[in-house]
Design goal:
Elements: H1 4-9, H2 40-46, E1 66-68, H3 69-81, E2 85-86, E3 91-94, E4 102-104, E5 113-116, E6 119-120, H4 122-130, E7 134-136
Parallel strand pairs: 1-4, 3-5, 4-6, 5-7
Antiparallel strand pairs: 2-3
């Protein structure tokens, strides 16, 4: 049965309306209600980590900082300025001292170089030897 007081507030401009007087009426729901719908923007801004962890951890992570032959040709002048390239009878490029750990074979390289790096792919070694360069690895 509807009480007189409740009836008096329904639909008036000075009262609380029908739903405002029931629990969490004007707040958009109780608790986390609506965080996937009408409260989504609030949720993303104020509690972005609420839903837990996302993504995955690779079971076989690569700790190599690699550089390809293409990148090497672009960065050669920069490496020379930073002191990792020494010119002499043959140009020696010390990528190990520059912080690189692996040489990849994509791209082309012109000129004769001696490249010092811990690991190099077979393709990189093959391309460099065809161009007259040598690779010194830790293997």
């Amino acid at each position: 049965m509807v009480r007189e007081r409740t009836k008096k507030y329904r639909g008036t401009h000075y009262g609380r309306g029908m739903k405002a007087g029931r629990g969490k009426g004007k707040k958009g729901g109780k608790g986390n209600a609506g965080v996937g719908k009408h409260k989504w923007i609030w949720f993303v801004k104020n509690d972005p980590h609420h839903m837990g962890k996302h993504g995955f951890v690779s079971p076989n992570p690569s700790n190599h900082k690699s550089i390809s032959l293409r990148e090497l040709t672009v960065l050669l002048s920069d490496l020379r300025e930073r002191g990792f390239v020494t010119d002499g009878d043959t140009t020696v490029v010390d990528l190990k001292r520059a912080g690189y750990t692996k040489l990849l074979g994509s791209g082309e390289i012109n000129g004769r170089y001696t490249i010092k790096i811990p690991v190099a792919t077979e393709k990189a070694i093959r391309k460099l030897s065809a161009a007259g360069s040598t690779v010194e690895t830790d293997d």
